[in-house]
Every structure is written in structure tokens, then in C-alpha cells.
Design a protein that fits this description.
Layout lengths: L1 H29 L1 H35 L2 H7 L5 H14 L4 H13 L4 H10 L7 H8 L1 H25 L6
Helix pairs in contact: 1-2, 3-5, 4-6, 6-8, 7-8
């Protein structure tokens, strides 16, 4: 079943590329000026994104080379205690980017023994965006921002504890 999903995703990528190419060709016939403007704009965006993608690719390769999910999962397992909760909350707080990027990473951690509650706490703590805190402080003030951040982290902790109870595997 996993093989079929990968095949479908691969076909979807090619289909999307074909649809974009057909759109550009159609636009080129209908309005060559707008087509060239659009293509130049897309290339400008690509120039801006390539350095970011290179850094992300490098960091991902570095992490995959030196950090194994089993070693991290050992710190997030049943016996992790307060250290596990602090790691999950801090990791969620520091993580950036799209959430869907974290799904396969967290799935590997879960398959290698990480607790469900810690994964839930990680996702919940992602609601706090560190780069946006200065702007939030300028709009709402320091007291409000700190209070909201504190209760968000507290909520992440409670959601994780609830998930641990609800998703606890029955003991044989």
C-alpha cells in the first residue's frame, strides 16, 4: 500500500509539472508579454529560494548522517520524565517551517519508541512562533505576549498528558 501511495505522489508531481508547462505555453500564445513577465517573476522567486533550499538540504543531510531516530527516541520514551517534556516543548518552540515536513520525522521517532504525548506536546508548542514574538510584543505588549506564551506551553503540556492517557497501550 505504501508503494502505491509513493507511485501516486510521483505521478501527481509529473502531472502538476505538465499542467504548469501547458499553462505557460497557453499564456505564451495568448499574451507573450505577460508570459515572459510571469516566467521572469518565477525565476526571481527561484533565485531567492535556492539558497534556502540548499541550507535546508545540507542541514537535513547532516542530521540524517549524525542523528538517528533511535537515539532521539531514547530521550523521548516511557522513562524520559521531565527531560522528555522539556525536550518536546523546546523542540516545538524552536521548530519552524511547514508542519507536514515534521510528519515523517515524528513518525520515525514514534516508531522508535517516542511517547505519543510528547509528540502531541511538540505540535502544540509549535503555535508559538519565535520570529513573530517581537511584533506581537509591539502590538499587544510584553505582559500579554508572555502570558499567552506561558499558557500555550502549559496547554501543550496538558494536551500531551491527555494524549498519553488516551493513547496508552494496554499492558499484556
Amino acid at each position: 500500500m505504501k508503494q502505491q501511495t509513493k507511485k501516486r505522489a510521483n505521478y501527481f508531481g509529473w502531472f502538476f509539472l505538465l499542467a504548469v508547462a501547458i499553462s505557460y505555453i497557453t499564456l505564451a500564445f495568448a499574451s507573450p508579454d505577460k508570459a515572459s513577465q510571469s516566467l521572469l517573476h518565477a525565476l526571481d522567486i527561484l533565485k531567492q529560494v535556492i539558497p534556502i533550499l540548499a541550507v535546508v538540504l545540507f542541514l537535513t543531510a547532516l542530521l540524517n548522517t549524525f542523528v538517528q531516530p533511535k537515539s532521539i527516541a531514547g530521550h523521548l520514551g516511557k522513562e524520559s520524565g521531565i527531560k522528555g517534556w522539556l525536550l518536546a516543548l523546546t523542540g516545538g518552540l524552536l521548530s519552524h517551517g511547514s508542519t507536514y515536513i515534521w510528519y515523517p520525522i515524528l513518525q520515525d521517532l514514534r516508531l522508535n519508541g517516542a511517547r505519543n504525548g510528547l509528540i502531541v506536546a511538540f505540535f502544540y508548542a509549535r503555535a508559538i512562533k519565535l520570529p513573530w514574538l517581537p511584533m506581537m510584543i509591539s502590538y499587544f505588549g510584553l505582559t500579554f505576549t508572555l502570558t499567552l506564551s506561558f499558557y500555550t506551553l502549559l496547554g501543550a503540556l496538558f494536551q500531551g498528558l491527555i494524549a498519553d492517557k488516551l493513547l496508552e497501550k494496554p499492558k499484556d
